[in-house]
Amino acid sequence: MLNDTTIAFIGGGNMAAAMIHGLLAAGSAPERIRVAEPDPDRREALTRQYPVAIMADNPAVVPGAQALVIAVKPGKVVGVLGELGPLLAPETLVLSIAAGVSLAQLQQNLRADQPLVRVMPNTPALIGAGIAALLPCAHLSPAHRLLARQIMASTGDVVEVEEESWMDGITALSGSGPAYLFLMAEALSDGGVACGLPRALADRLAVKTLIGAARLIDESGQHPAVLKNQVTSPGGTTIAGLVQLESAGVRGALIAAVQAAWHRSQALSAGH
Ligand SMILES: NC(=O)c1ccc[n+]([C@@H]2O[C@H](COP(=O)([O-])OP(=O)(O)OC[C@H]3O[C@@H](n4cnc5c(N)ncnc54)[C@H](OP(=O)(O)O)[C@@H]3O)[C@@H](O)[C@H]2O)c1
């Protein structure tokens, strides 16, 4: 289905590039992808990377597009839709990946029955390992729902949610979450260096440990607590490390980090 779908991007930044990369890898035809991007340097960079049509003008990418991906910063979304809303065909699917812009705000400048999906992706989309949460509008047809899933599946895993109030929590967990794990990778490597390991070795051990542990949770289907108990022998090294993490409040700090990001996302969604 994707290889005969024309997909237009408004904004050719990091997330758009991740999606274009994924779509091409998933079999989208390059001539079916168009990007509107105002920054000439960015246009040139995209042209070097991807054999897709890259234009300066937003309205130029709209005619014939079956899906329009809004990939500009949140503050610019309403203006962009004000410009493009009247130009869209009634059956064009609009996907917005902008954080904190609600379905109601998106709908403002669109026809009441325009197919519309709000999406929260994350940066591992850059390597096809993202997770995107999709929030469909109430009137979305099964065909448009499938198209939205297929587009986002080209960047990784997809979940669909019905509750718009969850989007701030999703932003706080999977949207901001990669940064929490980058911090952990850095700190684990520091720990290795503190034990006398060379930095390059410590970096590699830290990142491969994070990847391996994450894959083990995912692929074993076991709860993380079960996996933790399996590697914790009585009086051993791992329990000694875990006791330190618990006394330092790492578990509580992670919960509080997600909650703080949730509060910030709620404030940004409310325009503060
Ligand atoms: N990156 C993430 O981790 C992440 C995660 C979840 C959601 N998102 C959402 O994804 C969206 C894009 O984020 P990003 O990180 O890809 O941002 P980005 O790299 O700054 O990309 C946005 C691009 O849109 C261009 N642009 C600005 N105004 C425009 C206009 N009126 N018409 C067309 N293009 C325009 C920008 O050009 P200029 O630089 O010249 O302004 C820029 O190249 C945001 O709404 C963000 O909330 C991002």
Structure report:
- The chain is of the alpha/beta class and 272 residues long.
- It has 2 domains: 163 residues, 3-Layer(aba) Sandwich (Rossmann fold); 95 residues, ProC C-terminal domain-like fold.
- The chain is 50% helix and 13% strand.
- The chain has an 8-stranded mixed β-sheet with strand order 3-2-1-4-5-6-7-8.
- Helix 6 crosses helix 11 and helix 7 crosses helix 8.
- The two termini are 41 Å apart.
- The relative contact order is 0.10.
Topology:
Layout: E1 7-10, H1 14-25, E2 33-36, H2 40-49, E3 53-55, E4 67-70, H3 74-84, E5 93-96, H4 103-107, E6 116-120, E7 130-136, H5 142-153, E8 156-160, H6 167-175, H7 177-194, H8 199-220, H9 224-230, H10 237-247, H11 250-269
Parallel strand pairs: 1-2, 1-4, 2-3, 4-5, 5-6, 7-8
Antiparallel strand pairs: 6-7
Helix pairs in contact: 6-11, 7-8
The structure holds NADP nicotinamide-adenine-dinucleotide phosphate.
Considering the chains and any ligands shown, give keywords for the structure:
single chain, 272 residues, alpha/beta, Rossmann fold, ProC C-terminal domain-like fold, 2 domains, 8-stranded mixed beta sheet, 13% strand, binds NADP nicotinamide-adenine-dinucleotide phosphate
Spatially, the strands of the biggest sheet line up as 3-2-1-4-5-6-7-8
Query: How many domains?
Result: 2
Helix content: 40-55%
How far is the N terminus from the C terminus?
41 Å
